[in-house]
Design brief:
Elements (H helix, E strand, L loop, with lengths): L1 E6 L3 H4 L5 E4 L7 E2 H11 L10 E4 L2 E2 L5 E2 L4 E5 L6
Parallel strand pairs: 1-7
Antiparallel strand pairs: 1-2, 3-6, 4-5, 4-7
């Protein structure tokens, strides 16, 4: 079971500048977004910042406890900054 991960803003440099396929077969049947985010943070040695990052599931802002399905598109959006 795979889904597509997308990263926005500064997260592109921390994770990947292009969308990547992510296999969730080993996670079980109901995988919350937060488990995926924590796993990719661990594998990229990045500090998980769930208070600042907003998950996006299939082009809609989501909750960290929302469950993903095969072929979903899961994005992570950092806070906007600048002047």
């Amino acid at each position: 079971m795979k889904l597509t991960l997308e990263f926005y803003g500064r997260l592109k440099s921390e994770f990947s500048p292009t969308p990547i396929e992510f296999d969730i077969s080993n996670f079980g049947s109901k995988v919350p977004i937060k488990e995926i985010y924590l796993k990719i943070c661990q594998s990229h040695e990045v500090t998980a910042d769930m208070q600042m990052i907003k998950p996006i599931l299939n082009d809609t802002f989501a909750d960290w406890n929302d469950v993903v399905n095969a072929n979903d598109v899961l994005g992570f959006f950092p806070p906007a900054s600048g002047g």
